Sequence to fold (461 residues):
Amino acid sequence: MLKKGAAERALGRAVSTGGDFAEIFYEDTRSSRIGQTDDRIDTATTGRIHGAGLRVYKGTNSVYVHTNDTSDAGLMALAERAADAVGSVRGEDRQIQLSGSIVKNIHEIRELPMDVSGERRRALVREACRAARAESAEIAHVTGALWDWEQAVTIANTEGMFVSDQRVYTRASVTAVASGKGENQTGSESPGAMMGFELFSTREDMNARAREAARRAVTMLHADKCPAGVMPVVIDGGFGGVIFHEACGHSLEATSVAYGNSEFCGKLGQQIASRIVTAIDDGTIANEWGSENIDDEGNPTTKLVLIENGVLKNYMIDRLNARKMGMPVTGSARRQNYSFAPTSRMRNTYIAPGTDDEAEIIASCPDGLYAKVMGGGSVNPLTGEFNFAVGEGYLIRNGKIDRPVRGATLIGKGGNTISRIDRVGRKMWMAQGMCGSASGSVPTNVGQPMIRVTDMTVGGR
Fold:
């Protein structure tokens, strides 16, 4: 536990050589993981991350140091390291007075994962793997995992902030491999939430998720190879939102914008997308995977409209980049753990529901590709250029879903793609992932309703 007096003394020392702001991020995290390969539990680990990071600003320059010695002496030694990096002339320690505040918790936790018996945890993974294997004789290999972590943080700074938060994350996954004719195809499902073990009794049926993973693997095993070309593309909800997340979301983070490394620099108030597109980054949704009570700089989390009816409204901005950009913070600062300095990151990022009927979206597409599930990909935030694999795809012929195809890749540029969206469905849902960037890997949700892009380059055979 971070003591207020120790934090005050360390912060005062950290700015004694000319720094104008200092912040301590204290963390104590417990984690566990159970994994199974085929019919055998082969992983059972627990871990603990404990430490503190200290950051000092001098104008728009920043120094960040960290330690796992959180004793009073350890914090003072950390503060001296930071102060020495900021300046060589030592003045008097500044007198800092911290005021504690209570964070409103919007994430009800009913059953802490660490309190759940090992047998119940093993049974969840074992039964999910069994369900996947039973889906088809062509399922040759199944892996499953359950992992969770409980993170306690306290954040203090020279502006008087002293605030604490408790975060609980739970997630499970099943991956099924279908094999035949010398080829393998994979299907995966990995739901998670900022919830306890009640996730699996109130929201997620892992056996059903496992069967879905197996079904996808078998479907893709028998799919034709996707033809290449420029064509209309219908992208379904959930993981379909990864395209906006990667191709546009990262370009709206101050991590890119503040340094001029974004295709959306200087475009606030301008039309950058189709008028039927509204995109939101929301950290306030109760119990969602990417939500928080406060961000990792201690600011209240927010619901941030990034694009409204095609017009760029906001960037995601952390404290340091707020200084560089001359704009307010947006509660978007995140980090993997105390060993990373925070920066602007996405939370639950999605395209908002529209007014189009999903059946009509398919029917209005005479020929094209239906991307039911998206896979991984890559993007250049400076240009917005991207390519993404389609995890489960189907050809559309004469307004009807025709047959499954595999090997499809969507290629394009973020700004161009969101400008060519001409249909947005009415039902939006999200999917869970881990997003990596300058401040490490953090939980994020991606989401959207079904959308249609008038034309995209599809890579295939």
Q: What stands out?
A: The two ends are 58 Å apart (CA to CA).
